[in-house]
Amino acid sequence: MRRVVTGHDGSGRSIVVSDGPIPRSREFASLPGWVSRLPWATEPGEKTTRTGTDPTPNVTSLLPAPGGTRFVVLTFPPESALADPAFDPVAFDREQRADSPGIAELIEPDGMHATPTVDYGIVLQGEIVLELDDGHCTSLSAGDIVIQNGTRHAWRNRGSRPATMAFVLIGTEKGD
Length: 176
What we know:
This protein is mainly beta. The chain has one domain: Jelly Rolls (Sandwich), CATH 2.60.120. Helices cover about 10% and strands about 40% of the residues. It contains two helices and eleven strands; from the N terminus they run βββββααββββββ. It has helices spanning about 80-85, 90-100; strands at about 1-10, 15-20, 25, 35-40, 70-75, 115-125, 125-130, 135-140, 145-150, 155, 165-170. It has a six-stranded antiparallel β-sheet with strand order 3-4-5-11-6-9, with no helix packed on it. A hairpin with a 5-residue loop joins strand 1 (about 1-10) and strand 2. The longest helix has 11 residues, at about 90-100. The radius of gyration is 17 Å and the shape is globular. The protein starts with a strand and ends in a 5-residue tail after the last strand.
């Protein structure tokens, strides 16, 4: 996956300041096919950067504070990978906590979780199921968009191929 970042030169003209792979990208050893990428992030009240300096090395939590944002791209392997005898859930949890601090701690053993964010999710490739806490499941495919309003949910790839989704998480105050 390629990331192109724009900024401004000394004269204030628009330029491309970086063009290459997403530097903060991780393929999990504990769950082949699971890939997590953090292309960009902003903190509350942050102004646009004229230089396009990469903020991702300084991100200590994937859960943005109210007014902050995180742009995350995840590839989900088929659920059958979780049933593989070689799958080690303890090792996966350890990798999740290292890769996704702030969110990983909120994920329940069955994958359900809720965050104090509004999330814009776009299915880029494949098919995936959005499961809500009442058990309701909605099938999604490439091009479908989901708006998550702090609801408890899980993502299920019940197909035979990986599914990739892009998410923009916008930090909010926790609702009632």
